[in-house]
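Two proteins follow. First one:
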Amino acid sequence: MPIQRLHTNERMSQIVIHRGTVYLAGQVGDDMSAGIEQQTRETLDNIERLLGEAGTDKQHILSVTIYLKDIDADFAGMNAVWDQWLPQGVAPARATVEAKLCEPEILVELSVVAALPD
């Protein structure tokens, strides 16, 4: 099975699909001036759009890595939005880490691995 790469530039692909698994590159929100809740909502909206483009959805998320600029300040706000967004009964493997992100205004970035539906 060939590897599919979507939204590819010289350094990365936003979506990689291989053997029934979808990998999304780190995603951020659109408004970098927004607070953690809004940045998380926008990031999740972008993830949902990319999952749909890849042929899957948030119910098929296997794992997510969440990068927070300031885990002490932003973990609760990010979690509140995450808990509202994720469907009941869907519990992907998850790691949340504090990280220096590529732009100082970015508060949250998420990388996702999901399955394609059968």
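Second one, unrelated to the first:
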Amino acid sequence: MPGRYKTLLYLFLLVTIFPILQFFLFRYCIYDLMDLFGGSDVVYYNWRVVPILVSAPFLIYLECLFISCFFTENKKANQKLLKYMLHMSIIYGVLFFSSLLACPLINIGFAFSSYQSCPVGGAFSGVYYVKDKSKCFEITGVKPWGEGNRHKIDNP
């Protein structure tokens, strides 16, 4: 019977921990990528979205590994999960660094598309891309470049 209670406890923890993880990942990342690939009129792109989504399976693997550590009698990780740690780390490292290299390519792809970037403040914030330049002020509150008063320089 104690093994059955332990299994129920594992399931209870998985049911409570994974929705919290999924909430943050889906709320901030999935919607941005869905707009990006869906071709909506307004797309918010932040370069951090792709590496976060690539790291999600590895984080789930680590969480399962840590859960197995806390609930074993000798407080060591499950050997069946631990034997794949090296393989998962190598795969995650390759995928993570390749996603970091792919993030600037997405920005370059926007330069050749029908989208136009809206001016935003901050080097590490995301960028709004719109199909209609007049929506930029509504979204960001910042006037696009070249929309201010132009002063002519008179040469005597």
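SUMMARY FIELD: Confidence is low (pLDDT under 50) at residues 149-156. The beta strands are 42-45, 116-117, 127-130.
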